[in-house]
Specification:
100 residues, 5 helices
Length: 100
């Protein structure tokens, strides 16, 4: 993974961590505080949340705002754009599964 020196593997390691993509999804429409993130993500523990927030911040995908909320960075917004085709594929896939 991230020890191979391959950026894609490092990115997949980061995004594959439990709750990482869900946290990014919740930040897609603008800044959200940690308490609100916990409320939006039923089953997410505060310790895992803060671990993911630290990791995503260290990776420059999110940053804290002046009021202490979390928001995607320019780099994080680019990640969101890169995930849009995957979201479109997943939507098509789910509709095909529903019609089977």
């Amino acid at each position: 993974g991230s020890t191979t020196g391959r950026p894609l593997m490092a990115a997949l390691d980061l995004l594959g961590r439990r709750w990482a993509l869900r946290i990014l999804w919740e930040l897609r429409d603008g800044p959200v505080g940690a308490r609100e993130l916990l409320a939006r993500c039923a089953g997410l523990s505060s310790s895992v949340l803060y671990d993911r927030l630290r990791e995503l911040t260290a990776a420059s995908v999110i940053a804290r705002t002046g009021d202490g909320a979390y928001d995607v960075t320019r780099l994080g917004a680019g990640l969101g754009a890169a995930l849009e085709p995957l979201d479109a594929w997943a939507t098509r896939w789910a509709s095909q599964l529903d019609s089977s």
